[in-house]
Amino acid sequence: MSTEQTNQRPDPATGPATPARPAPPGDLPASDRAARRAVTVFPLLVIAAGAIGLLWPAHFTGWAPAVPWLLGVVMFSMGLTLTLPDFTAVAKRPWAVGLGLVAHYVIMPGLGWLIATVLHLPPQLAAGVILVGCAPSGTASNVVTFLARGDVALSVSVATVSTVLAPLITPPLTLLLAGQFLDVDAGVMVTDILKTVLLPVAAGLLVRVVAGRYVDKVLGALPWLSAVTIAAIVLAVVAGSAALIKDAAALVLLAVVLHNGLGLALGYGAGKLARLGRPASRAMAFEVGMQNSGLAASLATAHFSPAAALPAAVFSVWHNVSGAVVAAWMARTERRTR
């Protein structure tokens, strides 16, 4: 592996490789400039897809069965961005990574249940909000952490391990917290996560190990492939629940904004409380507050209904917008303190 490669860490699914140490803004390699563009363009692309699904739902209502396959493409892209050192890095910082995992799988599921209960959400929407909370870390969290001048290595470690452990954690958590709203078949959900998440990630990682020199040449294109694919997922989900959106849009948006905002704040607070330092605390904020909403949308569509997938679709847009804004504010604060 070349020096250039070892100095980079990838963003799972929607982000290109990003430097382990933030470089000066005026001296960013092409992959990092692509990361900045992806963070800006991705929410706009998803908003456009959602608008199309809302305005012309009849043309896309048959797309729902394709959602798990589309998610598989996203997760395969994530696997292609990973390298074996990303996994060995976990062993070097077990305390910080373990704290990140606990914070992620405690704070966001708990907030999802609390928000669904306090807002008296209808059962389908409540289950959808909780399922978003029980999903692994978000697909753009590593790029956003980099832009915020946070600890990218920690961000990659937490995101990777949370995704690998999702088949073991997401289904029972969903059963525990959402079971009072809807029937949850945790066993079938485990199988679905294995097929749509773990196997594609493992396949992508294997391809990267075997044919790394060829994969490196297309890394810059992977964020855009994933962005288009996630936009297609949002399009399918929104088209399938267009009527409900018109009735419950404000309520769902309120739930999503609270869920994401409180997750970012409590994730940062957990890092500060554990005295991990400012860069690691920033990584914790994004690893807790940003969710793999594509997975949540896929599971909600398959196990509940298109209506239950609506919170995931809205979250997919909002957490990228809020993440980019918070990252910009953190980076600005960092420059002012120097």
Automatic annotation (TrEMBL):
Topology of the protein relative to the lipid bilayer: Multi-pass membrane protein
Assigned keywords, A-Z: Membrane, Transmembrane, Transmembrane helix
Principal location: membrane
Region Disordered: start-end pairs: 1-31
Pfam assignment, any one: SBF
Location of the protein in the cell: Membrane
Descriptive protein name: Bile acid:sodium symporter family protein
Segments crossing the lipid bilayer: 38-60, 66-84, 96-119, 125-145, 152-173, 193-211, 223-245, 251-271
Chain intervals with Low complexity compositional bias: 9-18
InterPro entries listed in its UniProt record: BilAc:Na_symport/Acr3, Bilac:Na_transpt, Na+/solute_symporter_sf
